[in-house]
Amino acid sequence: MEAFALLSRGGARFNKDRFRDQVRLFETTGEASTSSDTGIGAASLPTELDFFKYASGSDTKPRSTKSKGKLPAAATSPLLGSSMLLEDAMSVDEEGSSGDESSTGRSIHRIAATGSRIPEPAGDFEILSQRYGLSQLLLDNLASNELSHPTAIQCQAVPILLEKRDLAGISPTGTGKTLAYVLPMFALLGSPLTSKDRPEAQQGTKEHGPRALIVCPTRELAGQIYNECMKLAQGRKWNILLFSKGASSSEQKKAMGKVDIVIGTPLRILAAIREEAIRLDNVRYLVLDEADNLLDTDFGKQTEEVLESCTHPDLQKCIFSATLPQVAERVAKRVLVDPVRVVVGVKDSASLNVAQTLTYCGTEVGKLFALRQLLATSPPLPMLIFVQSKERAKQLYQELLYDNLTVDQLHSDMTSKQRIESVARMRRGETWVMVCTEVMARGMDFGGIKGVVNYDFPTTVQGYVHRIGRTGRAGRTGVAVTYFTDADVPFLRPIAQMINQTHAQIPEWTLKLNKARKMKSDEKRRRKVKRDSVTKVAGGLVGRRDALRRRHGGKKEKKLSPRGGRNGARTSSSAIDASGDDGEWSGLS
Ligand SMILES: Nc1ncnc2c1ncn2[C@@H]1O[C@H](COP(=O)(O)OP(=O)(O)OP(=O)(O)O)[C@@H](O)[C@H]1O
Fold first, then answer.
1. Which of 48, 187, 264, 410 has a CB 3.0–4.6 Å from the CB of 436, allowing a cystine?
2. What is the spatial distance between Cα 380 and Cα 555, in angstroms, rounded to a whole number?
3. How many whole angstroms from 178 Cα to the centroid of ligand 1?
4. Whole-angstrom distance, CA of residue 231 vs CA of residue 140
5. Ligand 1 shell residues, CB under 6 Å
6. Atom of ligand 1 nearest to the CA of 147
7. What is the CATH number of domain 354-575?
């Protein structure tokens, strides 16, 4: 199958001429060969799934995480990704127990797995089928959705889950974690509850309530997971319920009946439990997606209550995320029984397909200048712009409305209908710039997003990793631009260090900052930096008049000039120019 078609599946419809360079990158040169029973060999990894360029003949020897030097330039090219950093995954974990390096499949995929009796990874869906008897219908559904080879996390996580083990799966953003838990879920459920070929149905046993439950932090993500489930559900009458605020109550009433899978946010599920609209005692397969977010203080209590309601003796649990800080790891350890822990690449690291820049803007005024400059010159479109609150999202959206771009917004002050429509417009390619809050930071998969702008600096490394992970997905490349002001300095150091690791030019002094007072991670996350409102900043200095003049073809402001000094923006990398594509955006499917 054509590699490019594979990568655009479920994401962007690319204009091949416009993205000629990227197309060339994903073109396969040879047929994959599978010689071992794992189906994995250095030569066998198809280029289009070689998200980390494993198969490019790189050295696979483990490297200690303790080496703190920068990566070689070649290893951090935004187009080529890296093989170097990912070797760290094979190293020793926090507790000192070493990752299982015995498997060739694991070392080729840069997978570190810890736990007892870890099954071999499977580099091919056919091999999974031979080993675990995946149904032909599931294989056909994978093929019809152009999913021909498993990604690294899928190679390892699917066998573990099919062996009914608990699992903590950590893999970078955009590497296919959803399918890693959805595929075994369907295989383990076997057939829909309503199906007559189920042994229970033949014995006349009555079953009520969902057998599988997927919990995730936002309704947008729940909707996206629902769509992913529907891809594998084709051909059978699976009863899958989306349990979120946007879903109709008549739909949700079905949860007490013959339902196979429920997908929802902790709050909605908990509300339904309290209203006796759902019972979870029949759940045997439980997934926490974006687990660190679900297990932290925002959702932690609700998630634990949901977990307590899943009382089936055969309950199998798995948690997935691109990041799992130690606090969440500790909770996960308590929750999971004899789990296998799988790390693909380096835990808590940003996607290597994203070219990152860090720009000092001095003040909020400088920041608005910098953004307008970016939008007026070579913006990586379509893009997401992250701000720290819904108020600021509304303000910045209002400001950008006057620019020559299709702008949209998404935040929690919008109704469910508005949020659904906003996501749909983005998927259809009608939106070039979306101003959003953290609501969009986790899990959302708009395959064709070219750029992410951190307009307001994120307060945690995890927040940064997830935000910029909205681009550079499924092997594509992307650009992440991060602005900061003097007010962001307490949060700067770890994120500056992370960006510095990728060879981006960053202001030197950001690396020399003293360690800030140690804040608990939830304190960091909750702490909102006090900022002048966007409206005030724009009205005073860089307001609508300039933007309107530009929009109406006025000669003066084709390109806003940076102010310099403390109020001006100094962009510290040229990576933006490298990947900003001009021309027409042909839309997301
Ligand atoms: N085996 C595969 N082959 C090709 N594409 C795949 C495969 N598995 C998943 N994808 C695609 O990769 C993209 C990213 O997948 P997904 O959203 O599951 O990533 P993720 O790891 O969960 O990311 P995040 O950490 O941001 O939640 C999706 O468009 C998905 O359809």
1. 410
2. 24
3. 6
4. 11
5. 6, 10-11, 49, 147, 149-151, 154, 171, 173-179, 322, 443, 445, 447, 469, 473-474
6. 3
7. 3.40.50.300
In the chain, where the domains are located: 1-61, 76-192+206-344, 354-575
pLDDT digits (tens, 9 = 90+) for 505-557: 788 888 877 665 555 555 555 567 888 888 777 775 445 556 556 555 554 43
Task: Tell me if 495 sits within 8 A of 350, measured CB to CB.
Answer: no
* Atom from ligand 1 closest to the CA of residue 48: 4
Q: What is the DSSP string of 162-196?
A: HTT--EEEE--TTS-HHHHHHHHHHHHH-S-TT-T
Structure tokens at 357: 């820049």
Please answer whether residues 589 and 14 qualify as being in contact, where contact means their C-beta atoms are separated by less than 8 angstroms: no
Domains 76-192+206-344 and 354-575 belong to one CATH topology: yes
**Sign of the Cα pseudo-torsion (352, 159, 224, 327, in order):** negative
DSSP result, 239-266: -EEEESTTS-HHHHHGGGSS--EEEE-H
Residue 287: strand, helix, or coil:
strand
Q: What is the CATH number of domain 76-192+206-344?
A: 3.40.50.300
What single letter denotes the amino acid at residue 11?
G
Closest C-alpha residue for ligand 1 atom 1: 150
Task: Check whether the bond before 62 is cis (ω within 30° of 0).
Answer: no
Q: Which residue CA neighbors atom 16 of ligand 1 most closely?
A: 176
All residues at 6 or more sequence positions from 475 whose CB lies less than 8 Å from its CB, including other chains: 7, 26, 48, 49, 50, 51, 81, 353
Residue 370, pLDDT score = 95
Predicted model pTM = 0.77
Residue 177 CA to ligand 1 center (angstroms) comes to 6
Instruction: Name, in order, each residue with C-beta under 8 angstroms of 508's C-beta and a sequence gap of 6 or more.
Output: none
Nearest-atom index, ligand 1, CA of 154: 1
* Nearest residue by C-alpha to atom 9 in ligand 1: 176
**Atom 10 in ligand 1: residue holding the nearest Cα:** 176
Task: List the residue whose alpha carbon is closest to atom 15 of ligand 1.
Answer: 176
Protein residue with least CA distance to atom 22, ligand 1? 177
Query: Among 145, 146, 162, which Cα is nearest to 154's?
Result: 162
Q: Which amino acid is at 245?
A: K
Write the ipTM.
0.99
Q: Are strands 261-264 and 212-215 parallel, antiparallel or unpaired?
A: parallel
Tokens 């570190």 -> residue: 112
Cα 570 → chain centroid? 29
Render pLDDT for 169-217 as a digit per residue (tens, 0 to 9). 999 999 999 999 999 999 999 999 887 776 665 555 566 789 999 999 9
Q: Which residues pair with 344 in a beta bridge?
A: 111
Ligand 1 centroid – CA 10 distance (Å): 9
